[in-house]
Write a structure and sequence with these properties.
Mean pLDDT: 93
Helix content: 25-40%
Number of helices: 9
Number of strands: 15
Largest sheet: 7 strands, mixed
Low-confidence stretches: none
Distance between the termini: 55 Å
Radius of gyration: 25 Å
Shape: globular
Structural class: alpha/beta
Strand content: 25-35%
Length: about 325
């Protein structure tokens, strides 16, 4: 063994001496330019016999000042604890969810399209990246009619992006956002949000493809509406169930995961009825933790799917967000 090692070293030394410096390997060329775009924004999971695909519409920076209910320094501390940047604002995702039940292709929320700038509007492209086409969607369930959930009903040409879909929203939601008399009484600076809602659903109404429901209905087999009022008058979650597994698509119950799980009493400026929004959040967090539900949030970090963990026991008042782990589709989750 020693002799072989000595011979090998001698051979390598002789080769190094024999090869002139000019024959050394040429330097590698510089690498190509960095790729400055992100991967397509979709994430797929199995839920019993259903397939749920999270769709990334994009993100928007929200000023922490719109969060209230505890002292501002405490809010900043919670944000910093999760290593979130707050300048120029806290990066906040906008997510939608595509549910294939086997019989229906259902979209929960439609994103913002171009209503709030170029950092949003990715739902349509990500539906296609996920292997589907917007024309294949047969049902759109809106958690509420804010523009970042409803404006994506229309394409860039102003025509329905989901031409074969029926669009549904809670009757309380439609009665508020789609009533021009209600809009006329609203402050001038928020009337634009009423117009976005009306414009988004108008072509579907004209085609007889818009209808309302009351809480507790099951507009699609396996998907039940859950009242989550407060953020808006008819804000609604959707309990999606298959094979003994359930996922609650809860819309805007939580806007900032760094703050509102541990301190659910924090409300956001966009909550129309802040007291009711707070009561709704407390109840849904408690239910989700107790029942070990999968949940899907429109403004949780993409893909926005995970579980709620009670930090001080269920009903103790403080919770934590446990995001889904990336992996293959498994029906036993």
């Amino acid at each position: 063994m020693h002799r072989l090692s000595t011979l090998a070293r001698s051979a390598l030394l002789a080769l190094a001496v024999a090869v002139p410096a000019a024959a050394a390997l040429p330097a590698l060329a510089a690498p190509p330019a960095q790729q400055r775009t992100q991967v397509p924004g979709f994430y797929r999971m199995a839920l019993g016999a259903f397939e749920v695909t999270a769709l990334y519409d994009g993100s928007i920076d929200l000023d922490p000042k719109i969060l209230t209910g505890i002292a501002a320094p405490d809010i900043q501390s919670l944000i910093a604890r999760m290593f979130q940047e707050s300048t120029p604002g806290v990066q906040t995702a906008v997510n939608a969810f595509l549910v294939h039940t086997g019989a229906n292709l259902v979209l929960v929320d439609a994103g913002a399209a171009g209503a709030f700038g170029p950092t949003l509007g990715g739902v349509a492209a990500n539906i296609r990246a996920a292997g589907y086409d917007p024309a294949q969607v047969d049902t759109v369930l809106l958690t509420h009619l804010h523009g970042d959930h409803a404006a994506g009903l229309l394409g860039a040409d102003g025509k329905p992006l989901f031409p074969n879909a029926t669009v549904l929203a809670a009757k309380e939601e439609a009665a508020f956002w789609l009533d021009e008399a209600v809009a006329a009484k609203a402050p001038q600076e928020v009337q634009v949000f009423f117009k976005i809602a009306r414009d988004a659903v108008a072509p579907y109404q004209a085609a007889g493809r818009f209808r309302t429901f009351t809480a507790g209905e099951e507009p699609v087999p396996g998907i039940k509406t859950v009242a989550a009022f407060g953020h808006t008058p008819g804000h609604t979650g959707y309990l999606i169930s298959s094979g003994g597994k359930s996922l609650l698509a809860w819309g805007d119950v939580v806007h900032n995961h760094a703050v509102q799980f541990s301190r659910p009493e924090v409300v956001i400026e966009f909550d129309i009825d802040k007291a009711q929004a707070l009561a709704t959040r407390r109840k849904i967090l408690e239910d989700a933790a107790r029942d070990r539900l999968w949940v899907a949030g429109a403004h949780l970090p993409f893909p926005g799917i995970g579980h709620v963990r009670a930090e001080n026991g269920v009903g103790g008042g403080a919770y934590a967000w446990v995001p889904v782990e990336f992996g293959p589709l498994r029906g036993d989750r």
